[in-house]
Amino acid sequence: EDQVTQSPEALRLQEGESSSLNCSYTVSGLRGLFWYRQDPGKGPEFLFTLYSAGEEKEKERLKATLTKKESFLHITAPKPEDSATYLCAVQGGSEKLVFGKGTKLTVNP
Amino acid sequence: DAEITQSPRHKITETGRQVTLACHQTWNHNNMFWYRQDLGHGLRLIHYSYGVHDTNKGEVSDGYSVSRSNTEDLPLTLESAASSQTSVYFCASSEDRVGAGELFFGEGSRLTVL
User: Are A87 and B97 an interchain contact pair (Cβ–Cβ within 8 Å)?
Assistant: First the structure.
């Protein structure tokens, strides 16, 4: 059974304080690992897809990396507008996405 | 701009009533999905469709049904609402089936069953 575990559950940072979110996974035949951002009262918004170990993707202050067992979402010099819940999901042989419970990030000014 | 819309955004109903949540997308995507989101759980797949007249059960499909009569719409029906179905429901669509992790989500429908 495909599984995704995200840590920490919540993270509070000061503006400019860089950090990383973790997504550990077990999947049979990884087709892709996906990161989403979710603002309160909104639907998730797609950020990145990673397909193989060693791959990296960047978007503004965010960089996602992938190994055979986990993915990291690195946030460099975050701003208050980066505050959101970040969701990780994997797609394996079943083709259906399995989501983690998310990490709630708060960036204080 | 293409979009995906859900209605109603908020609904309160009573146990035993039938409820239908609407989902309409203008992306012209073949693939559509319904998820529920609850505290302490990740998004969980209820039902999905890969095209007109195609429907499939997800991991939490009991008590729910869907039908797909056109590309744009995938309504979700709760045949007899239960308090355990109080949740936030999200509809999503995607262009690709394989590698279909790039989902476009609606804004969600918050359902309360009393």
Answer: no
